Amino acid sequence: MTDSSTPREASDAATRPPLAVGIAGLGAIGRAVARRLDQGMPGVRLSAVAVRDAAKARTFLDSLSRPVPVLPLDTLAQQSDIVIECAPAALLARIAAPVLIAGKKVIVLSVGALLDDPQLETLAREHGGQILVPTGALIGLDAVSAAAEGTIHSVRMVTRKPIAGLAGAPFLRENNIDIAGITQPLKLFSGTARDAARGFPANLNVAVALSLAGIGPDRTLLEIWADPTVTRNTHHIEVDADCARFSMTIENVPSENPRTGRITALSVIALLRKLSAPVRVGT
User: Fold this and answer.
1) Is there a catalytic annotation at residue 236?
2) For residue 6, what pLDDT is reported?
3) The CATH number of domain 5-136+264-275, selected from 3.40.190.10, 3.90.1150.10, 3.90.550.10, 3.40.50.720
4) Lower CB count within 10 Å: N or C terminus of the chain?
């Protein structure tokens, strides 16, 4: 028997207006995503941005083929169906709360800040909004999420970063650690993903994403190394579960911001593309 609703659904999808995407923050990731949206993507369009330096943002936006308005953070949700948070972690709640209260979606890159803002999940649940965490700089989140449907016994992660990728981390300042002149790999931290997120808020969003996909931030164990012998942000993960034992390593090429890999922006773009794709690959 033929499903008569299928042609109608296909027609609706073809004529549905594209989703309006707002971007909060125009650093390396925000600019990369904005450029790709400006080039054209099925089902989505750049609608507005919110930044601290409007004049600086205007210079960039004027270079796009379809300039968009610069709005205050508090009104970005009104002009967007989806908001991408590409800002400092301290601004996450201010960016995400209006989006979630409006029952819309927010893509979060400052994943570590979610641990300090649990009320955001409550807002999403109460108002029908949704917090989306892209795979970002970490491969294998689908496998970890699948394993978590069973029993995961342990998750361990070792991160090695060039000196520039760790400079300025609160953990270093609080412990009076100077890594500028080291010539050999130096282990800076060993502990839980929750503690790592506090000490390295601009560096370890990948660890928090891994923990949220798996067994949580208090059972996910992490080592962080400052390594002058590497030029890429390197993460090695080992997972032991009742369904499988697996390990994975990724070496991310840094973006214009040495704390962030180029693949992070591409992961956001892939997520946006999936929202309206006729075929979705991955969990």
Assistant:
1) no
2) 44
3) 3.40.50.720
4) N
